[in-house]
Every structure is written in structure tokens, then in C-alpha cells.
């Protein structure tokens, strides 16, 4: 199920591996509105970094900074240990950072292979409108197979695939076009249990193939299944930063649900009921 990837990873001065992406005290403000404050995290090759948070926690803003949609107001973004200011999603993709959004930006009635190469089609001959359909079909089959995706017919409309299959096609597409870091925006949010399991398997496959994965989710169960490192956002601030070995699923779920705030509310409601 895993792909074999030969990657050169630099060593940090401390002897550890240099993160593919690192955020140091990142902040983002819109006028007098603070969306993010003092966010720090690392994305390493061969690891899944789970970013959790409820609606309004700042997850989308953080994605857009890493993906190059808008620059941070404060702090520093490093890629391969070098400080950088990303100016656009194209700039981020040039650095190997690809984002797979929840809506996937696919054309449902087009075949799988057309969606795989959408906007980056292979041409043949001297005519710019002549597509090399056979090459694109063969490449799509090969790349999906590398990710362990069994899809014998890439001529079917992508809209006919399950939600999990569409997510996996989008991941394979990002990998093919040069991604080293995959940012997955709520990939299991609209899926049932079985299809969520399909996506989680391919996230694990990408990790084992040496990619750095940023898994954005509000589901602590999914995050704990595949994650190596967890960051919990709450109202634009970093509430939790720990590794898999440092936290149980129960603790992660409690923190995601509100932690001390939830406990205080529970006591308040019990008191009101008792009164």
C-alpha cells in the first residue's frame, strides 16, 4: 500500500532532522481583530501533524498562511530551515506544499483522469489544444496505484466515486505534482465511518512514503488514529502541543471538548439541576 520514496533529509544543528515546514510564533491580524496569536509547530517528513479545533478556532487562517494565500502578520515561517514569505499558493506549491481542500475543486462530470490533470494537461504535437489523453490516462492509473488506490477505470466521472475515493484521488494528484507537504483540510468531515477509514489509510500511506502531512480536523478519534503530533487551537491561540506518546485519546477528546471549561459547565448544570 505504501509508495517507495527516496528523500534526502537534512540534519539540524542539534542533530535532529530539519522540519519540512516550521512556524515560529505566527500571528495574524485583520485590523484590530486578532485571528491567530503565537502559533508554533513543526511538520516533519514521515509524520502526521494533527491540527484540531472547533469552528472559529483559527484552523482555516493557519491553513491559508502555510498554503500561501496570505502572509502572517507576526512570526516566522521556515521551509527546510530557511525563513521565507510565501506570496501565493503557486509559490507554496513551488516549495512542495500542496493543499487538498474539503470541496476538492473537482468537475463531477469529467472523467477521473481529466480531473487528475485539471489545469496542467499534457499536450501533444504542435497544437496547444491537442491533449495526450492516453498519456494522462496511463499516468493517472500509475499514480493512483502507487498510493494503493485500486481504480481500474479512470474514464468514469469523478462524481460517481465515493467521497473517500475522491479525496484519495486529490491526494495522489498533489503528490504527483511535486508535493512534499500535504495539507488536508477536514478530509473526513462529510464522510461516513467506512469512507473515513479509506481516507485515514491513505493518510498513513502518505506518511509511510515520507511525506509530511498536516491533518486539519475537529475529530480527535481520527486525529489520534494517524497522528504523530497534535496541536489544538482555541480562539486563535495554541491550547495544546504534544506528541502521540504524551496524550491518550480520552485526554485529547476532553481537551477538544473544552477541558476545564466543559468541567466547569458540567458542575454548573448539575448545581442548577440539584437546586
Structural commentary:
- By secondary structure, this protein is an alpha/beta fold.
- The chain has one domain (21-274): P-loop containing nucleotide triphosphate hydrolases (Rossmann fold), CATH 3.40.50.300.
- The chain is built from nine helices and ten strands.
- A six-stranded mixed sheet has the order 6-7-8-3-9-10, sandwiched between helices.
- Helix 6 (193-208) links the parallel strand 7 (181-185) and strand 8 (212-217).
- Helix 4 (133-146) packs across helix 5 (163-176).
- 37% of the residues are buried.
Question: Which overall shape is indicated by the principal axes computed on the Cα atoms?
Answer: globular
Placed side by side, the strands forming the largest sheet appear as 6-7-8-3-9-10
Described by strand count, sense and barrel closure, the largest sheet is: 6 strands, mixed
The CATH topology is given as Rossmann fold
Count of DSSP H/I helices: 9
Kindly, what is the distance between the CA atoms of the first and last residues, rounded to a whole number of angstroms? Answer: 58 Å
Average pLDDT works out at: 85
Assign the CATH class.
Alpha Beta
Assign the CATH architecture.
Answer: 3-Layer(aba) Sandwich
Strand content: 15-25%
Q: Tell me the Rg in angstroms.
A: 20 Å
- Class from helix and strand fractions: alpha/beta
Approximately how much helix is present in the residues?
A: 25-40%
Tally of separate domains: 1
Unreliable runs, pLDDT <50, ≥5 residues?
Answer: 1-15
Amino acid at each position: 500500500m505504501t509508495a517507495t520514496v527516496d528523500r534526502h533529509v537534512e540534519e539540524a544543528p542539534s542533530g535532529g532532522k530539519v522540519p519540512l515546514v516550521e512556524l515560529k510564533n505566527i500571528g495574524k491580524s485583520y485590523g484590530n481583530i486578532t485571528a491567530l496569536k503565537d502559533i508554533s509547530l513543526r511538520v516533519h517528513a514521515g509524520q502526521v501533524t494533527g491540527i484540531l479545533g472547533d469552528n472559529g478556532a483559527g484552523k482555516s487562517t493557519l491553513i491559508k498562511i502555510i498554503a500561501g494565500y496570505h502572509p502572517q502578520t507576526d512570526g516566522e515561517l521556515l521551509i527546510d530551515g530557511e525563513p521565507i514569505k510565501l506570496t501565493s499558493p503557486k509559490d507554496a506549491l513551488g516549495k512542495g506544499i500542496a493543499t487538498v481542500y474539503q470541496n476538492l475543486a473537482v468537475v463531477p462530470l469529467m472523467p477521473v483522469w481529466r480531473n487528475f490533470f485539471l489545469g496542467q494537461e499534457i499536450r501533444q504535437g504542435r497544437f496547444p489544444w491537442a491533449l495526450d489523453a492516453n498519456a494522462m490516462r496511463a499516468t493517472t492509473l500509475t499514480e493512483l496505484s502507487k498510493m494503493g488506490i485500486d481504480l481500474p477505470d479512470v474514464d468514469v466521472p469523478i462524481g460517481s466515486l465515493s467521497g473517500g475515493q475522491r479525496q484519495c484521488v486529490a491526494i495522489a494528484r498533489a503528490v504527483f505534482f511535486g508535493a512534499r507537504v500535504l495539507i488536508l483540510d477536514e478530509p473526513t468531515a462529510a464522510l461516513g465511518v467506512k469512507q473515513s477509514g479509506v481516507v485515514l489509510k491513505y493518510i498513513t500511506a502518505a506518511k509511510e512514503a515520507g511525506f509530511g502531512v498536516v491533518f486539519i480536523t475537529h475529530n480527535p478519534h481520527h486525529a489520534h488514529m494517524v497522528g504523530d503530533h497534535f496541536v489544538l487551537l482555541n480562539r486563535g491561540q495554541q491550547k495544546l502541543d504534544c506528541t502521540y506518546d504524551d496524550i491518550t485519546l480520552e485526554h485529547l477528546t476532553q481537551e477538544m471538548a473544552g477541558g476545564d471549561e466543559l468541567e466547569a459547565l458540567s458542575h454548573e448544570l448539575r448545581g442548577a439541576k440539584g437546586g
